[in-house]
Here is the input.
Amino acid sequence: MSDIKYIIAGEDGENTRFPCLAMVRYAMAAAVSLLAVGVIVLVIHAVFRSEDVHLSVNNGYIGADRLWDRTPVLSPDEQLGNIGATNNIKASAVVVHSKAPADVSETQLKHESTIDDDVGSSSIEPLPKECFLGCNSGDGETTQYTLQKASTTNLCVILIASNPSGRTKIDCGDTTVSLIDMSSPYKPIGEPLKLENFTVPPQTTITMQKRLKITDTTYIWNNYAGELRFSVRLQVSSTVTSYPLGKTHIKQQKYTCQPVTVGLVDVEDIFATDRVDCRPS
Ligand SMILES: *[C@@H]1O[C@H](CO)[C@@H](O)[C@H](O)[C@H]1NC(C)=O
Here is the structure.
């Protein structure tokens, strides 16, 4: 700033001797001033900027207590027939069983099928099986199961919310989480999950766990009968409020988290990944 004073006072002929130098000094002074103003604007902007919460999905995994039901077939050597020609069961749920008791077929709809270690040999190549559906148990016996649509299932959704900034707490209200199938037909899995309002204090990470109860498992049954897992995209929507310097900022935010695995709790160790970050969308 002493530069500026010198130039203003400099009517002693220096200007005439070095007019260009004076111009350069003015230009420099102007540039420095602009820079200072720019920095101040940036700082003010940063200080008052609203804060965004960082969301991620724990282990990239949503554990399901079941995706479908299975019951062991009591007499494995009874003859196999095929009543499945007209039903819409996936080709991965292979062998269809003819001797399902009538009352079971009533309650479990028309999808009666039996699975044995033949799973995977069908024309549609399913996900790896890891013997969950029953393998040769060593003595040559093969356990067979009848697959049924689950009457209900619970998905355990665990979200991690963090607020790395030290400037303000962040309130998240009216948060909903939707699970969308990442494969055709790309439909929602269950109803959107509503979270209670939550607050993330500065420089804090919180973990929230909420159960998504699905009472109509038709979609899972139609698309993933016999599968241990499938991939979904999470769409999170939330009213995010932050308070930089006591000023209240409210933002309607949407986040997308993918790919997230929905799978049986029993195989989480196999398919869990690192946490999957959610990106503002
Ligand atoms: C939850 O948050 C929303 C939006 O921020 C707000 O309108 C609502 O009153 C809050 N509900 C409760 C119970 O605090």
In short: The chain has three domains: 5-37, 52-65+152-280, 69-148.
